[in-house]
Structures are given as structure tokens and as C-alpha cells.
Amino acid sequence: MVTKNYMSGLFGRFPITPLQEHMYRVYRCIRHLTPLIEGMVESDDEKVLKAQKEISKDEHDADKMKRELRTHLPKGVFMPVDRRDVLDVLLRQNMIANQAKDISALIVGRKMQLPAEMNDGCTSLLYRHSNFNNTYISWRNFRCRFSKRDCSNRPTHCR
After folding, report:
1. Whole-number Å distance between alpha carbons of 27 and 97
2. pTM score, two decimals?
3. Which of 9, 21, 118, 157 has its CA 20 to 30 A from that of 58?
């Protein structure tokens, strides 16, 4: 007969790692905004459609991860982070992915094209977006370097 340690049921697992994986899936979703807007500026319909499909696919992956995380979030009495806070962060991350999908659907659905006067503004928006990408990658690298666990088997996006 297998005995269960009742004390271990009081403590939940650390929920930050699944949140970080969801954050990476959201990042994968929004990184396609750059080619989407570039395609819109260049009037390249193929590039826009390809980016929109990638955004939609990655948003769907993030939604699956969100449902999985919500379902398997520990309900232990003593979690290192409050469950409501974890769900709030998850909701906000999901909103980012949904906004990227909505933007891409609007651009494709309305067949949007930019006037030449707006190209510079959109280009500067792209630079700000790419700065976010660099910040995200730097944060992942920083976290892996200074964590106490072995990060030698970390995903390639974290290196």
C-alpha cells in the first residue's frame, strides 16, 4: 500500500516557471508583428498573410498553455505566490497575445495599406518593438545565469 505524505499536499509547486513558459509563447506571438507591419509598409500581401498565420498559430498555442496552467495550478494552502496574482499575470499575458491576433486580423481583413507619410512612424514603432524583444531575451538570460538551478539544458530561446 502506498502511503501519501499529507504535509506535501499543503504546499503547492512554484508557479513562476509555467508562467515564464506562457510568457515565451506570448513573445513568440508578438514577434511576428514586426514582419506583419513591414509587409504592410512594403505592400507585400504574402508577407502579411504569412505573419498573420504565424500570429494566429502562436496565439492558439498560448491559449492552450493558459488553459493547461489554469487547470493544473496548485490549490495548496501554502503557495509561494498568491493564486490570484498568478491568474492576474496570466490574464495580462493572454491579453497581449489576443491584441496581437486582433491587430493582425484587422490588417488582413481590411487589407490595410499605409500612406507614404506614415511609413516613418511605423518604422519607429518597429524599432520600439524590437527593443522589447531584446529586453525579453536579456531578461531570460539574466534569470538563467543567476538562478540556483542548472540551466545547461535550458531552451535555446534562453541562451
Report:
1. 8
2. 0.71
3. 118
